[in-house]
Each structure stands twice: as C-alpha cells, then as structure tokens.
Design a protein that fits this description.
Shape: globular
Strand order of the largest sheet: 4-3-2-1-5-8-12-13-14-15
Number of strands: 15
Helix content: 10-25%
Structural class: alpha/beta
Largest sheet: 10 strands, mixed
Number of helices: 4
Order of helices and strands: HEEEEHEEEHEEEEEEEHE
Radius of gyration: 17 Å
Strand content: 25-35%
CATH class: Alpha Beta
CATH superfamily: Glutaconate Coenzyme A-transferase
Number of domains: 1
Amino acid sequence: MELTKEQTQEIIAQRIAKEFHDGAVVTLGIGLPTKAVRYVPENIHIIVQSENGVLGVGNYQDDTTRDEHIINAGGFGVTVVPGGCFVDSLMSFAMMRGGHIDLTVLGALQVDQEGNLANWCIPGKFTPGMGGAMDLVVGTKKLIIAMEHTAKGMPKILKKCTLPLTVAHKVDMIITEKAVFTVEKSGLVLREISPYSSLEDIEASTEAEFTVDLYHQAA
C-alpha cells in the first residue's frame, strides 16, 4: 500500500500521541509534530508548550475558534485550553533551558545511530537560523524525532549525519511511518514495525545499523 504524504504524516502523528503520559509538559516542533495534538487520548492530560510563548496549546483553530492573534511557533492558528496562559520569550526559553519540559518532539533532516540530530540547515540553502531547537534538545528530559522515513527515496536514518548537527547524542526515540526505534548505549534498536511496512522494507530504507527487539507488532 502506497501512502500519500498526508496519510504518512497522520500515521506518525497518531504514534507520537502514544508517548504522551498524564501530566507531562510537552513541546511539539514546527510542522508534523504539532499534528499529534489531534490524537491525545481522552484519559491523558498534557500541557503543550509552544516556544513562542503559549503554555496550554490546544488543537488547531477552525472557523468557530478563529483568532489570528493566537498562533503556535510555526505561525498556525491554535486554540488554548482552559487554564492556559501566555508568557514572554524570556519565560518560554527558561522553561526549555531549565529542564522543565518532559517530552520534546521534533522533525529532522537526518538522524543517526549515535543519537545525533541534524534538523536546521542544508549547506548552500538559505536558513533563518537554528531557532529554539538547540534550547529544546538540550533542556528536554526526552527527545523524540518524528519524521518521514525517507526523503525522495533516500534514507534519513543514517550511520552518521552528514549535515550540520543541531545536537549530538541526545535523541532517545525515532518515529516514522514505517518503524519506531530507540537509541540505546548499544546503538539503534528497532522496537516496532508499522502495519504499512516490513522488516525487509525497513532494512532497505535505513542506512543505519540496528538490532531488532520488538515491543510488539504495532496496531
């Protein structure tokens, strides 16, 4: 089954949400990770922080909740849950740098078997800068990378990142539409195989070396 880009991203977003635990303070990076707010289990209460200064981010806005003044770090309109608040950049980055974020989910250009992350720059192409990513990755208690498994057919999970790093040896988990990996001291470990993939497919589309120790077959 060949998935559309939208289907791929929704599969990843649903799997991200399974990592949320009750009471967690969570930061969701720009793009795909923010879609996970749609799938927070009803019995789980989390506090979503956005680096632009929103604590208590809810779902995306629709026509009944539209307010152009309330946006996430990616500039998309979002709602704020009851009890949510707004803070300035100083307070927002103090949360991130001070170890107050339980879980951060970011996208990536590349990630490797050593837990290194490259997600901010392609040499020769314009980039406005690393932004808050460097603060998030060093301050969070757990770092999950959520991304499509390949880019234009080329692996994104590598033996060694070739692009400028955002952080070294900090990635804890990688979630794609094909698989879930954890980064252990022993190296990369395949934990789940998506119903939309197979071990053979994952081996063919992953440059990194990994061992297989499945939690369970993903539902």
